[in-house]
Write a structure and sequence with these properties.
The protein is built from 9 helices and no strands. The protein is an all-alpha fold. Helix 4 (88-101) packs antiparallel against helix 5 (114-131), helix 5 (114-131) packs parallel to helix 7 and helix 7 (155-169) packs antiparallel against helix 8. The longest helix has 26 residues, at 41-66. The protein is elongated.
Length: 227
Amino acid sequence: LASQGERAPLADEPAINTDSLHLKLVEFEQDCKTLKSFESIAQRIEHKRSVLIPKYQPLVEAYLEAGESYQNPIFINMIVWQFDIEQLETAIDWCMKAIGMAAPLPEGWKRKSWACVCADEVLDWATKQAEQGQSVEPYFSTVFEKVRNEWQLHEELSCKYFKFAGLLLIRAEDGKPKATSVGDVETLKSALALLTTAHELSAKAQVKTHIDHIERRIRALESGTNL
């Protein structure tokens, strides 16, 4: 039933109440101004985590569940905020939905697409995780599959993915890539293929030394020579 002061929508009208959406957008803009008043990045991220995301996430979930197609600034900004608080499962899922909806990027962004946003953010996160000896799965592989087989990204970004994936396979216990730490020839060959692709994608890949080390390690294992 329509509340007092509102009329019930007609059968051919969209389910969304535009007056209600307008009020939410005004409130959201005010919340964004408050967010910008925080001096430190850490304060902003914590405010997003503890205040803004819990406040607006139900609204975005209802928008997605309804299958609406109108432009929703709250949705597109919330995607970025989910990456900011490293809620990767939601961030990636919403990014995929934004791609399917051809949703615009936040105003003023220099990135060219949501695919680029997703790839950039996940790679940055995975790099930090790997440096700390933490797992990058399942999020890295989920996005790498898209980079590898579906998304048309700039060669430099695609190169970074192939390089990261290849070096991940030869990462030693100290977190550094080291071909001699791997005793399985098939794993080494997989790493070699990934790094070779990275090299082909960009001359700036800086993987030639790793490729040489892997090739030597494969020859040593296949010949029985102990390196």
